[in-house]
Amino acid sequence: MGAFQTLAEKLSCPVCSGKVQDGKDALRCQGCQTTFPVWGDFPWIFANSGEWKADWTQRFRFYLQQLHEDIQNLKMELKLLDLLPKTKERLQHLVQAKTEQHRELEKLFEPLLLGGGPSYEQQLAAQTPLPESQQLMGYYGNILRDWGWGEEENQICEDMLAGMLGPHPLGTMLVLGSGPSRLAYDIHRRLGGRETIALDINPFYLLVAERMLAGRNLNLYDFPMAPIDAKAFASRVKCRAPETIKQGFTFLMADAMNPCFQDASIDTLLTPWIIDIVPQDFRSFAKKLNRILKPGARWLNFGSTVFHHRLQHLCYSRDEIPDILAESGFEVLQVRENVIPYLRSPSSCQQRSEKVFSFLARKVQEIDPGPAFTPLPNWLTDTEMPVPIQADLQQQMIVNLTLTQVLAQVDGQRNLRQIAEVMAPTFELPPNDVLPMLKRMFSRFVEGRGRSMNF
Q: Is residue 13 located within the same domain as residue 65?
């Protein structure tokens, strides 16, 4: 019997929906024999776990490369001759902070950074726009809030949700989108959780949370957008948990969109700050959550309702949510709206508040969960399928070829007007008409250099 036997009994294979068995070094489906490895001391339950690990490893590595580039750029700025003494002191402080941040996170990421990887330039080429929920540092501030900035926000949220749940036993509690997991930790500790499963799709948050619950500190830096003074441009934050949790709390890397759990296996479901950021229609998502809950199980939701969808009919108002819950087999027990402090860094001039929406519902009916959610086309999930010729891909190819042709003219000698003369036949325009186009292209490059890249 392995370390995840209790968890494995509740899991369902994402490939064939078969039962999952724990082993010495990995979990395995008893039906299709798909293996689910343990990396970072928690299982990765995906149909293609190796691809997920490779993707996140590249993001980890790219972030460390970015930090290194930032440090080198700051050192170059320190060589400027006309710096004010206080400016020089601030830049030196930033160099020290980013160097320590690099060292601390390199140790944290170590379980996933074995072997080589793409160069910094290759990583830049391969990056793709991601929703905030899937960016490596998309919610970095939540880590500092959860474990380092103090107890005010955490205590307010804990009191509010514990009050909604009441004295009813939690049983097996699943936290979908647990992030750095402070809320899961607080509810588990306060209400005497028997078994809590903290699930997220970002291993960075789980690596941090795992370290916190084990009683190990983590020294990170807060880099606020609006620092209160020069020292606050990089403020050292000591992250730690009030006390350790040694039993009954498990971390899991998996996709919340198609929950990898057996039917009727969960007693309490907690969804903090997730229902409005997932790419799935909330009406479909709610039905999938119904499937994994036991009859009478409770679902506690907490967070914002700013639904991010291109189609407006999927951007539901708070008034529509009770109707969606009813059609998904739930009875709504409580609905609350509260204004709470949100991500208030002690080092920032910005002190934000958020009006959060919470509901407590009970499963009263079985509902057909519908088909599995697939946000990507088949040719992206099945790597054996040919990539189809599509208009937008052809358009991007022309854009890239044009950029390549323009950049090929940059030799350190030609000026913009000379490049415009060379490119005029390609654009089928006079050089004077090509010149403003080139200015816009190079302006975007210059402006982009000052922005951090999300990966």
A: no
